[in-house]
């Protein structure tokens, strides 16, 4: 058999590259005669650059940019054939913010000061390196500034001078905005926002109300203040663009990219197109995908659902591996997944988290006995 292994990251335990390698290793133990093609996947969030580099090659270029709170952080972008791929989380990700007492979400209030300035710096560095197309993966952000910092890094001019660089707290005092210098900086450059999020910038379905709580913007007062700050930005920039699909992605980074002439693509589609995934699916007997937790969110715009959507029309069975599976068999099959296998069910929770690579390989070894022929 010819097997395609194309998982997303297993958040908190394995990168997509590590997960693909573990599945391939375990599968070969049971079915050494099978041809296993490993193609790690991503949807625009953390791991975006590594996944594309593993498939496309190209040149990884290192840079130092401003983190969400202004501290210098290392970041890397991929330059391949005139296209630069940038992972916004490297410059403004949740992992770069101090965590609160729960150990999962940032300290309350810190996101009100967090900026996307470093993402704009990465775009500028990519253009200076010769990129004529820049694809920005959106996901895992710890910011909620509507991309104001990105705009400032690319030359946008505001009153007061620092209103764009201090997060939503600073945006509240914004009185004027000129985007033309930033647009001129990107003249002749194609800009793409890669994200599975289609929320608008403002309102009940906007960046603050939907994604703010995971960034520490929890209480109603903080949400109202942050959304009001983004409204001030939108009123001075372009209120119509704020309603576009994806404007609310990554705390409004999508909005800034749209303002600069960018277009939105689903993150999965961006990666799938770059690695030639449709042709790979058509050329195998079985498709394997997976992620850390397989739940209802996996069924909408994520890597797992994207693989299933490609496998169905190609008449190729698709199965999934996960740390935990929280969707029933009937629902899985309705979404194009023949079967799903949970690490915690096979090796237990402690082993799954303590030795994730070995555990995933063990699951793949066992499943291969059923699916390989």
Query: Can you say what the CATH homologous superfamily of the largest domain is?
Result: Glycerate kinase, domain 2
H-E string: EHEHEEEHHEHEHEHEHHHEHHEHEHEHHH
Just give the CATH class of the largest domain.
Alpha Beta
Q: Report the end-to-end length measured between terminal Cα atoms.
A: 7 Å
Keywords:
single chain; 373 residues; alpha/beta; Rossmann fold; Glycerate kinase, domain 2; 2 domains; six-stranded mixed beta sheet; five-stranded parallel beta sheet; 17 helices
Task: Describe the fold and architecture.
This is Glycerate kinase. This protein has 17 helices and 13 strands. It has a six-stranded mixed sheet, sandwiched between helices. The N and C termini lie close together (7 Å). It has helices spanning 16-30, 48-56, 89-92, 117-128, 148-153, 167-171, 180-185, 207-211, 220-237, 253-259, 267-275, 277-282, 303-311, 329-334, 343-347, 349-354, 356-371; strands at 2-5, 35-38, 59-66, 72-80, 83-87, 133-137, 157-159, 176-178, 190-194, 263-265, 286-294, 318-325, 339-342. 39% of the residues lie in helices and 19% in strands. The protein is globular and about 65 Å long. Strand 4 (72-80) and strand 5 form a beta hairpin. The mean pLDDT is 94. By secondary structure, the chain is α/β, with parallel strands linked by helices.
């Amino acid at each position: 058999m010819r097997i395609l292994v194309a998982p997303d990251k297993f958040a908190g335990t394995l990168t997509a590259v590590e997960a693909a390698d573990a599945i391939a290793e375990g599968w070969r133990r049971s079915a050494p005669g099978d041809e296993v093609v490993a193609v790690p996947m991503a949807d625009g969030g953390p791991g975006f650059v590594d996944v594309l580099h593993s498939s496309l090659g190209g040149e990884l270029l290192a840079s130092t940019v401003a983190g969400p709170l202004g501290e210098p952080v290392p970041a890397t972008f991929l330059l391949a054939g005139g296209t630069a791929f940038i992972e916004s989380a490297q410059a403004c990700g949740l992992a770069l913010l101090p965590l609160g007492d729960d150990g999962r979400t940032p300290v309350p209030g810190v996101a009100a000061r967090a900026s996307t300035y470093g993402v704009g710096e990465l775009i500028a560095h990519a253009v200076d390196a010769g990129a004529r197309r820049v694809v920005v993966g959106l996901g895992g952000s710890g910011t909620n500034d509507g991309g104001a910092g990105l705009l400032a890094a690319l030359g946008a001019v505001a009153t007061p001078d620092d209103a764009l660089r201090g997060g939503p707290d600073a945006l509240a005092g914004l009185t004027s905005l000129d985007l033309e210098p930033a647009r001129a900086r990107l003249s002749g450059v194609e800009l793409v926002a890669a994200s599975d999020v289609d929320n608008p910038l403002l309102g009940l379905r906007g960046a603050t109300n939907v994604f703010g709580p995971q960034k520490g913007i929890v209480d109603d007062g903080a949400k109202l203040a942050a959304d009001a700050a983004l409204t001030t930005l939108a009123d001075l920039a372009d209120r119509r663009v704020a309603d576009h699909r994806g404007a609310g992605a990554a705390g409004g980074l999508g909005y800034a990219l749209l303002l600069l002439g960018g277009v939105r693509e689903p993150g999965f589609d961006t990666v799938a197109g770059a690695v030639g995934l449709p042709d790979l699916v058509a050329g195998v007997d079985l498709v394997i995908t997976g992620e850390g937790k397989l739940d209802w969110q996996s069924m909408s715009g994520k890597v797992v659902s994207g693989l299933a959507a490609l496998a169905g029309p190609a008449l190729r069975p698709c199965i999934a591996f996960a740390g935990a599976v929280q969707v029933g068999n009937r629902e899985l099959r309705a979404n194009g997944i023949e079967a799903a296998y949970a690490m915690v069910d096979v090796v237990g929770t402690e082993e799954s988290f303590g030795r994730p690579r070995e555990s995933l390989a063990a699951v793949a070894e066992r499943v291969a006995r059923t699916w390989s022929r």
